[in-house]
Amino acid sequence: MKIAAAQMSLRLGDVEHNYKQVEDWIRNAAQERPDIIVLPEMWNTSFYPDNIRELADEDGRRTQAFLSESAARFGVHIVGGSAAVRREGKLYNTMYVADRSGRIVSSYDKVHLFAPGHEDEKFTPGTKGCAFSLDSIPMAAVICYDVRFPEWVRMATLTGAQIIFVPAAWPASRVDHWCILNQARAIENQLFIVAVNSCGSTDSMQFGGHSMIIDPWGNVLAQGGDGEEMLCTDIDLDSVTDIRSRINIFHDRQPGLYDLT
Ligand SMILES: NC(=O)CCC(=O)C(=O)O
């Protein structure tokens, strides 16, 4: 399976520019004939302008139509990072996944909102995880700060996922955490992690890039630098069963003992 990860620089609050840019990137990535294109977090507005409430996509209608139409046009699955979405007057940081027929197969509202950046004051957290299949392969997704919560990523793994996507808008100042956490999540869950960060800067934030495609042994198959870049890599899904047969943590874990309260 071939994965393309779009590490891009987005313009804060410039929704039209960002749509055009994402459209160009999807068109260019499609020339490499990937099975899946993955976008970063909150690509419609960047993370995040003061007037986010006005700019957010009402009911995610435009985002879903755009991802669906792009996926069908280029015959590629799109894990749509996330977009700022307004539903019933509330703001959400929402991922949509479109399969190559153009069907929206999953959506996910970010559950762990980044309180140090006041995301929790503006946005409403999701209440459910995200698991879906593409080409009959089970996969899951979390968004950015979610990756700091190993229990949440383990829950996603226990759905049978072989790949977990982590779109992000992670700052350069903590890019060492980003790399280590993603690698740890791949090793401890014995699956592929496709972690796609933003790069570039806004007035107050420098995003860290260093998107990563990591195999279930923790090997980094592809890694971005600081700037814009499309990572494109083949992954061998057989390695999930191979590694789990060598060290079978899913057989050896003791879930009955994991509540000490
Ligand atoms: N967009 C985010 O969730 C930022 C997360 C972050 O900066 C961190 O966990 O550190």
Automatic annotation (TrEMBL):
Entry's family note: Belongs to the carbon-nitrogen hydrolase superfamily. NIT1/NIT2 family.
Organism of origin: Megasphaera stantonii
Domain CN hydrolase: 1-237
Coiled coil ranges: none
Protein name: Carbon-nitrogen family hydrolase
GO MF annotations, alphabetized: hydrolase activity
Record keyword Zinc-finger present: no
Superkingdom per UniProt: Bacteria
Keywords, alphabetical: Hydrolase
